[in-house]
Amino acid sequence: MESRRNISEFILLGLSYDQNIQIFCFIFFFFCYLALLLGNLLILVSIQCSPLCSQPMYYFLSHLSFIDICYTSSVTPKLLGDLLAERKTMSYGNCMLQVLIMHFFGGTEIFILTAMAFDRYVAICKPLHYVMIMNRTRCNLLLLAAWAGGAVRALPQFFTAIRLPFCGPNELDHYFCGIFPLLKIAWTDTHITGILVIAFAGVIALVTFAALSVSYGIILFSLKNRSAEGRQKALSTCGAHITVVILFFVPVIFIYLRPPTTFPEDKIFALFYTIIAPMFNPLIYTLRNTEMKTTLKKLSIKCYFQRKRTVTLKRLIG
User: Fold this and answer.
1) Confidence tier at 18 by pLDDT (50, 70, 90)
2) pTM to 2 decimals?
3) How far does CA 235 lie from the centroid of its chain?
């Protein structure tokens, strides 16, 4: 592999050359990342410390929050560091590792969102069989399939990247190591390789998005026979799922279902599925979900009284 390249690092051109814009982006994305971590950790703790963990929807949601943290953390800390650095570089090994990790967690998120859609379909369209169908064993199998699907989606991208020869330019016009920026500077004809990447990653995203759209369409159609209260409760959960699916899939489909080249808009669309969408997920799932809001209130009250009791005990001991 060493003979196929004569570079040891890549230079990331980042989001902008303007120093003022870089400082603004650092402050903005720092708070976005902080909100993302706090929001998803809060969901994780709230679900794990409450009876909601026994419900399939929240069981999947806790895994989605964990995936969001891992997925965004593979990109954002490096982005924040580069926004303050004069020379933005990444070693060849770290670049290949980032390609693998990003596609693995991104692919896993796609299939977890699919599992969550299946859960909502069974809950709304087959309510009498819900407990039997969505038992813990089947939920674990769906999660295992999601993780396996993430690996199946990531490995071809990774092996494509490490087989590329790099013998000249090493500047990537992006803020992370993406497969298309790497294809652009590879020292070989990558037209066929780019088409294969689109045929694999793009088709997976498109087929999954189409399946999700059909499933939510069936769910919404079935709601016409429900009571007003039943429709409102179903829409509160399905509306959150649909919003998350759109925020994540639309930018991904734009990136992977088009000619295999890079465009200036790629960085903006990439920000949506790497930072913006994962940051909004906790807000979307909590603000539109009564059970999550109730659980958060109970957890806040519990933490408050525990802290108050600790302070009182310290005063008595002191």
Assistant:
1) confident
2) 0.83
3) 23
